[in-house]
Amino acid sequence: MMLQKNIELQLQAIQIIQQKNGELPECLKNGADFISDLEQQEIRMISEALRISREEYEQEQLRRKEKSDVAINRNVPKTSRPDKVTTPEREQAKPLHSIKQPSKDQELPYKQPSVRLKELSSSEAAEAWMDQARKEAGIQGTSLTQTEKEQLQARAEYLKQRRAELLARKGESKKETQNTEEPKEMVPSPKQQQKAMTEEELKNLQKRKQLAEKLKEEVINK
Questions:
Q1: What's the pLDDT score for residue 169?
Q2: pTM over 0.85
């Protein structure tokens, strides 16, 4: 570095001399200079030293730049943004409106009217059923058309017939179970049969037993 500074100072001094005198001295002009071998050797050494110092300077600048880059990379916080959100976070991030709502076309389970239809006539039952259906559906009676009223009445009649069929089947099943249980009750047990026998039948049985014993003795004695 000092050698480079000296050369730069020498060049500046030559420029100042040229500016003052208007020309360079004879020793600095191009031409046949009388330079000894020692001076030429010094010039070669100076140029070689300049080249080496320049290379060292460039290498030093590169090392400083690399160190500064490493320091900057270490100081910068690592903020890695996740590409994919995990399953629980994704479920929490779902908007409320994404929850599946029941479609309008999906039929709701039918609820039978709570009005008792046993003691009502067919027309009264249909009217009561229509009133109940209106209340459950939130429809006012004045907003129903004639076709809707007829459909509701037909529906009430159909439900009434189905209910009557179910009651009839239930009654038939009860009768069948009673008929199957009655024969079992009518079959008497052996003890009951003995109790039901009269005294005369008991005497006849005793006589038969005695006769059988006599015949047996006669056969054995023969």
A1: 86
A2: no
